[in-house]
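G., the chain you wanted modeled:
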Amino acid sequence: MTVASAGKKGRLEVVCGSMFSGKTEELMSKLKRAEYARQRVLALKHQLDNRKSMTCIVSHDGRARAAHPIDNCVLSIQTIIDLADQFDVIGFDEIQFFPEDIVQVVAKLVLMGKRVIAAGLDLDFRGEPFGPMPYLLAIADEVVKLKAICVVCTKDAHYTQRLVNGEPARYNDPIILIGAQEFYEARCRDCFKIDQEPLILPAARQAAAQV
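Predicted structure as tokens:
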């Protein structure tokens, strides 16, 4: 087994996309390949994601992998640094659930020579950047953006549609609602519905009008 050497910087890989785009499957595949290369691998998840297991990351196709659950109450740079110290590769599933402090944690791990693989939703149910994801995408060495299939028209889907009693959720509903097919669908830009357009769109239109 090898441990990342001191003084040599690591790298950050971000896997993003809508729900049902295969992010967790991609993360698990990357971690498995690292194990084939005889690297020590640690998988982490947020305790909020308890849909199928508290101690595993589970893909929508049923594959599972043991993972260490992290709670915001104990989240600190040093907590995760200590946990990850003897590993080469650190994988985060559903990293959008973590507070923005996780960006400092990831940056520190990379400086320590670790390979960090972070999987998560890049957009929330409102169609806006989700939590720490825009910062992680900005500093990533590699970004893999996956696509789902729109359940309405079958085009490529980049958005996660939240449904409440079969109707689109409202913009001011809580950002986090843990669930899967019972609350969410993958949709393309045309089929995605929300009662208030994402805040980034008016600014983009105003900028376009000034060109």
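Helices lie at 23-36, 77-84, 101-111, 133-139, 200-210.

Shout if anything looks off.
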